[in-house]
Amino acid sequence: MLPTLGPGLTGRYLVLLEEGAGAQGLGAAPAATFGRLGVAVLPEPPAGREGILAIEPERRVYALATAEVPPVDETRATWGLQATGVLSSRFTGAGVGLAVLDTGLDLSHPDFGDREVVSRSFVEGEDVRDGQGHGTHCTGTAAGPAQPARLPRYGVAPGARLHVGKVLSNAGSGTDADILAGIEWAIEQDCRVVSMSLGSPTRPGERYSEVFEAVGRRALAADTVLIAAAGNGSARDRGVFAPVSHPANCPSITAVGAVDARGQVAPFSARGIDPAGGQVDCVGPGVAVRSSWPEPKRYDTISGTSMAAPHAAGTLALLAEATPAARAGELLAALLRSARRLPLPATDVGSGLVRAP
Amino acid sequence: VSEPEAELLVSVSVADADALPAVVRRLEAAGMRVHRTLVLVGAVTGSAPVACVAEIERVEGVLAVERARRHELAPPDADVQ
After folding, report:
1. Sheet with strand B5-12: strands edge to edge
2. What ipTM describes this predicted complex?
3. Contacting residues of A for B53, CB less than 8 Å apart
4. Which residues of A touch B (CB under 8 A)?
5. Does B64 touch chain A if contact means CB atoms closer than 8 Å?
6. pTM for the full model?
7. Exposure winner among A142, A258, B70, B81, fewest CB in 10 A?
8. Which positions of A are catalytic?
């Protein structure tokens, strides 16, 4: 029996007519008929079934507005873990190799003291200890513990086999060559995903690096997904839109932009200006992100596409655990397919906000 | 007077991994000081006098030659990272 009136229903009926059938003989006079569509709207159910393919109640439709989001309660977990569905995921990235290439990690941090961490420094004259802070923050977001020394939880994939490659110095600088060495090491270590919160600015129309593109393709062939921050060069409040940075602008490297807790694009987040590979592929939480910081500070809340990329990398580790047989290309496709669509231009957010399986 | 040096990234063919040492020897013969040979990703990094770059580009087995870029993070206390 058809529902006559329910929440969201108008009380009228949509009738789908057979090809060539008219609206006559439906009983009540139609409120409207659409001959080209073969659809009639009736004030009551039709008398017979002759010439009718389907009948359904007419729904009320509403404009799709961006809902007002109340301030997020971060007592137990960061807004980023809540917005990406990590908290309700049963996956932790258990056993999945994940590499963070950055300024290293504070190995004495209470949230990583018990953690088995494979680490290596590619910066001449510096060990893997993080003398800057950026690497400890990004590592925390990608793979921080399920139960940190102090709440809220902030790490996406606490079960991941964590690899920390230092490719940026304690002064926060590095070269392409050291980054390539870090990628090679991550592949050697069977990491399924590499998180790179680094980049150098590009000019609009600048071609991507052929060397990094070849490396990205070979990484995928070796079952390793490379993920990089899209870049922070925009100043949207002043009408400035920066293209995606190197190496995130390579087609085979996933570029991650940043959104805030209301789902709005961060003012600094790069835009997919260059069509050949320079797209933003997806976005992650990148404004007011809390994560680990070297002692004695221990935690800090900062912003940047650097904070968004490890959310995506951690999510990929969860996907790798959920579908162990999936190849790198399939995991990457799953990351983009499962992203939460946002009512924003794809040039800014790609497929949308990454979402845990 | 020392010649200007360029930090280089060289992408090499990985179709035949056994051929890689020979490519590295040819790069060195062309004037490149090889720092690292990255077998899995098919890249060689190092430096060379700027005057040698054109010859390095012509080495058999080389797919692309680029200058290495520098990556600089914002200071740790900056608003955007």
Report:
1. B33-38, B43-49, B5-12, B62-67
2. 0.93
3. none
4. 103, 132-134, 137, 168, 172-177, 179-181, 183-184, 187-188, 197-200, 209-211, 214-215, 218-219, 222, 232, 246, 268, 302-304, 306-307
5. yes
6. 0.84
7. B70
8. 102, 134, 306
